[in-house]
Design a protein that fits this description.
This protein has 69 residues and is mostly helical. 74% of the residues lie in helices and 0% in strands. It has four helices and no strands. The longest helix has 23 residues, at 7-29.
């Protein structure tokens, strides 16, 4: 569906999806631990900070948004 949008709409949609994913990681996975999130931000080491691969985190996020949560 992103291909049906013009460039500014795609950019906004991507920004909203990224924010949703980050919110999921901070709130649901890290339980609000901003220090852990900043560790991910600095290092890119999702597995080391969460115990889950990026693919596992993405699957959990997709399940949450699919469920309307």
């Amino acid at each position: 569906w992103l291909n049906d949008l013009d460039q500014p709409q795609r950019r906004r949609a991507a920004y909203l999806m990224a924010g949703s994913f980050v919110g999921y990681v901070i709130e649901d996975v890290l339980k609000g631990d901003m220090a852990a999130f900043m560790g991910i931000y600095r290092s890119g080491d999702y597995a080391g900070m969460t115990g889950r691969s990026v693919g596992e985190l993405e699957a959990g996020w997709r399940a949450k948004i699919s469920a309307g949560g």
